[in-house]
């Protein structure tokens, strides 16, 4: 086991580090970022007012819209000549959020991702198969530099070209694979199509993230690949991957790098803190970033935190796996619903493959939901490839009953043959919004 010295510090010592770094960060943004200086002045707060960690709550929040409104470089705390890397979001809903890094930032990021990979079980001298996408997305390059920093031979295969991915896994014998859970599922499916046993590889650990995934998905990935599957968390506005990582020993919450980030959990409506263990919106403050230090950033991600000593020996704060994003939450006839909740119950049904999509429709003034699912290859063959088989109708009723009882939402069910739902080479597309098109629901059962 590889433990960084700061991962096992007593609470008081960690808080001393956090306070000193918080005070320095607040002074820095007040002096160098007009946006923060104006926000602090409006709130009548001076850097000298931050005397304890509790004083952090006096500082204003930062939102994604703030980064977009100051696009591209308005929130930078360094001169442009000091920037060595620029990443950005896809910008599918407006201007992208742009994040920049100094050389020190890149080194710090690599250190934190190296720590994360070690937490998940990676060891120096092993081979690391990186199936995260490279480019403006922070996942690929973030994991790449972290794996190299840890001393692993890194295969920068990126996403896509799945058959080549399989060949490289067979030929190079990596110990660790990293990617989105949905794309790793595609690799598994392609292996099975080729007549290969996904568990018959050198892989021991998987590092999966960039999209919410359930415990049932973990069991599917672990069972198919014969690995320990661990969750990684990050977002570009705060740093990228490596903010927190689940340990392979306990798989009970993601260890946050407390020496580099302060986490809060707030009620997204009242903006007040919620007690440890209760779900709310994650808020992060960076403590060591140079180019884009960020204060109380509202992530939009819903989770909870717990403290105490983990089975692995670390004392760092742990966050639960992401329940969903505030903007991914569906409100169907007054019921709040996240796609991850659907996945949690759907993957328990043996007749189905682990692929699904949620189609939103409008019926009059009300929103309605159709759940598209796929049959497993085994069940499809067992019914003779007959999509009108009586067992299909019975299965549709079983799914409807499960969704209504567990998610409290009535859903139309569309059962499809294997490989009908589009596969993703990155983040899976779970929600298809057809409400503007007046498309009628299709159902079985």
TrEMBL record:
Its EC number is 6.2.1.30. It catalyses: 2-phenylacetate + ATP + CoA = phenylacetyl-CoA + AMP + diphosphate. Pathway: Aromatic compound metabolism; phenylacetate degradation. It comes from the Bacteria. The keyword Phosphoprotein applies. Pfam families: AMP-binding, AMP-binding_C_2. One of its GO terms (biological process) is phenylacetate catabolic process. Residues 74-285 form the AMP-dependent synthetase/ligase domain. One of its GO terms (molecular function) is phenylacetate-CoA ligase activity. It is an enzyme of class 6 (ligase). Keywords: Ligase, Nucleotide-binding, Phosphopantetheine, Phosphoprotein. Residues 334-435 form the AMP-dependent ligase C-terminal domain. Monomer. Catalyzes the activation of phenylacetic acid (PA) to phenylacetyl-CoA (PA-CoA). Belongs to the phenylacetyl-CoA ligase family. This is Phenylacetate-coenzyme A ligase.
